[in-house]
TrEMBL record:
<keyword id="KW-0175">Coiled coil</keyword>
<dbReference type="InterPro" id="IPR035965">
    <property type="entry name" value="PAS-like_dom_sf"/>
</dbReference>
<dbReference type="InterPro" id="IPR003018">
    <property type="entry name" value="GAF"/>
</dbReference>
<dbReference type="GO" id="GO:0016791">
    <property type="term" value="F:phosphatase activity"/>
</dbReference>
<dbReference type="InterPro" id="IPR029016">
    <property type="entry name" value="GAF-like_dom_sf"/>
</dbReference>
<protein>
    <submittedName>
        <fullName>PAS domain S-box-containing protein</fullName>
    </submittedName>
</protein>
<feature type="domain" description="PAS">
    <location>
        <begin position="77"/>
        <end position="130"/>
    </location>
</feature>
<dbReference type="Pfam" id="PF08448">
    <property type="entry name" value="PAS_4"/>
</dbReference>
<dbReference type="InterPro" id="IPR052016">
    <property type="entry name" value="Bact_Sigma-Reg"/>
</dbReference>
<dbReference type="InterPro" id="IPR036457">
    <property type="entry name" value="PPM-type-like_dom_sf"/>
</dbReference>
<feature type="coiled-coil region">
    <location>
        <begin position="7"/>
        <end position="63"/>
    </location>
</feature>
<dbReference type="InterPro" id="IPR013656">
    <property type="entry name" value="PAS_4"/>
</dbReference>
<dbReference type="InterPro" id="IPR000014">
    <property type="entry name" value="PAS"/>
</dbReference>
<dbReference type="Pfam" id="PF01590">
    <property type="entry name" value="GAF"/>
</dbReference>
<dbReference type="Pfam" id="PF07228">
    <property type="entry name" value="SpoIIE"/>
</dbReference>
<dbReference type="InterPro" id="IPR001932">
    <property type="entry name" value="PPM-type_phosphatase-like_dom"/>
</dbReference>
<keyword id="KW-0378">Hydrolase</keyword>
Length: 619
């Protein structure tokens, strides 16, 4: 069909072509095992479609130009040809000389899954399979320069759809266009649809609401993850966030974090269903600033989205090789900052492959919000770490790392922190003149101030024991110092100096010690006295005990006897005595462990206030 034809004949030929194309589709569905004959016929119909387009263009060129009429014959013919183009049963695309889509038929829109308004103005080569994109551009140039039509087989991918197609490429002149154009007739040979039904993407109100709901759900899940205590305590914040994004919204996730002013690669996650281990290792070793998109986001502070990639080098190149995005098979890219107070703390890079719907502006908004949340989480974690380190330092100042070896005495202790990060209880064992000293107690309060007062008491006893041979006198001096500080804090404490089997105790409002006899009997010391820091001349209880073989002296904090079960009952000293009675003749380490295990079972493992247990036995 090389001669020009009338419009009526063209309409008839178009209807006949539509009928034959429908028959071929039915044949392909009915006889999938014999695609060869259907393919040959489809290729012949492709040539027919191309000739019809050429004839229609010739008719359009022949139409005389008229002016002054409300609607000239050429205008009516132009309207008809536009209608023919829109209803053409074979996918047709018209490109300008640079390969940008200028016209697209309804059938092409249906096949690719996007409305014409979305695809017009896009570069058509971006839809072509990455491995054949360079060859397609060469064919396109050859048609432009030589005028000879050609065919080209490749894959087109968009919106989660992948089509193996035969492209018929021809040069044409469009009326009113200063440059020659390129017409491409698309014959699908095989289609793979990932989840979505064929046809344009559903952009109804209901679909948009559902998409927004999914984004909101992802944001909520990310927030819960970042607020989890483990994310604050352990250096896993960025890794856990990247894993969630990789599972929910991207094929590749790359996280870069600024440390000591230098961007460093923190996490690289690739598709779990593809053999990309070597590529992941390669990306992990790359410097973030060699990726132009990442460098732009880190310095500019705002995110970028590339719905369709025109530049494969946006996140760098394989050393000595092709662009990284090309190796990945990427089709869409999104990079957002991890926001800090004075600039970016890092960047999140998300990549989607060609078999997924591309990132949109709505995705960019969501990821920028996630980047802001992640930045807040990192700052909170750093603050938490700083406070944690301070708490550890304070705790080290009130709790010894280990107990010293005391000649003639066995000692064991257990310490459990309570609900407060910084504890106010202490225990200690230290040398004194001609023997050893020990102390146990705590300030009435919590937090850093209580811990600092506790540390002063503990260290003050150590210093005073160098000069004082009597723990009662050492406690009196400490009391004067606390009253002079006027901190409003008071400390309940007990201290003792051990010389051979003789122990001199000084009590300042602390619980009485439990004395476990060799036969299993348990009695409690006097206890009592006035807490330190209340009054200058407060009473300090003085008591002396001589331990015999097999006896164990057990000291404990209020957190032990005040522990409660589900019914609100306190552990108490009676239950403590029962447990100790079962430990007669046991080593101090066994005794403190038995008490702690019984308390744990009683309270269901809950710890509100600090628990200290110290046991001494003369051997």
């Amino acid at each position: 069909m090389t001669d020009a034809i009338g419009l009526n004949t063209l309409e008839q030929a178009l209807r006949a072509l539509s009928s034959r194309v429908s028959s071929l589709r039915e044949a392909r569905s009915a006889y999938p095992a014999d695609p060869r004959s259907t393919l040959d016929a489809a290729l012949a119909e492709l040539d027919t479609a191309r000739e019809l387009l050429e004839s229609a263009l010739r008719e359009l060129r022949k139409a005389p130009k008229r002016s002054g009429e409300r609607e000239s014959g050429s205008q009516r013919e132009l309207k008809l040809l536009r209608q023919v183009f829109r209803t053409f049963p074979v996918p047709v695309v018209v490109l300008d000389s640079s390969g940008v889509v200028r016209r697209i038929s309804a059938e092409t829109s249906r096949m690719l899954g996007s409305p014409a308004g979305y695809l017009i103005g896009r570069s058509f080569p971006l839809l072509v399979d990455v491995s054949r994109r360079a060859a397609f551009r060469s064919h396109l140039t050859a048609v432009q320069q030589g005028g000879q039509s050609t065919t080209f087989q490749t894959r087109l991918a968009h919106q989660g759809r992948a089509h193996t197609v035969q492209l018929a490429i021809t040069r044409l002149t469009m009326p009113g266009e200063p440059q020659e154009m390129i017409a491409i007739v698309v014959l699908p040979l095989e289609a793979q649809v990932a989840g979505d039904p064929p046809g344009p993407v559903d952009r109804s109100d209901a679909s948009l609401v559902m998409a927004a709901a999914r984004r909101q759900e992802l944001l909520a899940r990310m927030t819960r993850l970042l607020l989890d205590e483990e994310s604050l305590r352990q250096p896993v914040t960025v890794t856990r966030a990247a894993r969630l994004l990789a599972a929910e919204t991207a094929d590749w996730v790359i996280a870069d974090v600024v440390r000591d002013g230098v961007p460093r690669r923190a996490v690289v996650l690739g598709p779990s269903d593809k053999p990309v281990t070597e590529l992941v290792r390669l990306v992990e070793g790359m410097t973030p600033l060699t990726a132009p998109a990442v460098a732009h986001v880190l310095t500019g502070g705002s995110g970028v989205v590339h719905e369709m990639l025109e530049d494969d080098s946006l996140i760098g190149e394989v050393p000595g090789g092709p662009p990284l995005l090309r190796v990945m098979g990427a089709a869409s890219l999104l990079v957002v900052p991890i926001q800090g107070e004075a600039g970016a703390l890092g960047a999140l890079t998300l990549v989607r492959l060609r078999d997924r719907e591309p990132f949109s502006l709505a995705d960019l908004g969501l990821m920028e919000e996630i980047g802001a949340h992640l930045g807040l989480a990192l700052r909170a974690r750093r603050s938490f770490q700083t406070r944690s380190q301070a708490a550890d330092a304070l705790r080290a100042s009130v709790v010894p790392r280990s107990l010293p070896d005391i000649p003639g005495v066995e000692a064991a202790a257990i310490y459990h922190a309570g609900s407060s990060q910084v504890g106010a209880e202490f225990y200690d064992v230290f040398p004194v003149r001609d023997g050893w000293g020990f102390a146990l107690g705590g300030a009435a309060g919590k937090g850093e101030e209580a811990a600092s007062v506790t540390a002063m008491v503990r260290n003050g006893l150590r210093v005073l024991s160098v000069w004082e041979s009597d723990p009662v006198e050492a406690m009196r001096r400490l009391n004067h110092a606390l009253v002079a500080q006027n901190s409003g804090m008071f400390v309940m404490a007990v201290a003792g100096f051990v010389r051979a089997r003789r122990i001199v105790l000084a009590g300042a409002g602390h619980h009485p010690a439990a004395l476990l006899q060799a036969d299993g009997g348990v009695r409690f010391t006097a206890g009592g006295g006035v807490p330190l820091g209340i009054a200058p001349e407060a009473e300090i209880l003085n008591e002396e005990i001589t331990l015999t073989s097999g006896q164990t002296l057990v000291f404990y904090s209020d957190g032990l006897v005040a522990s409660q079960n589900d019914q609100g009952e306190a552990y108490g000293e009676t239950r403590l005595a029962d447990v100790l009675a079962r430990c007669a003749g046991q080593a101090p380490a066994t005794v403190v462990k038995a008490v702690e295990e019984d308390r744990h079972a009683f309270s269901g493992g809950r710890v509100w206030d600090e628990i200290v247990i110290l046991a001494l036995r003369v051997v």
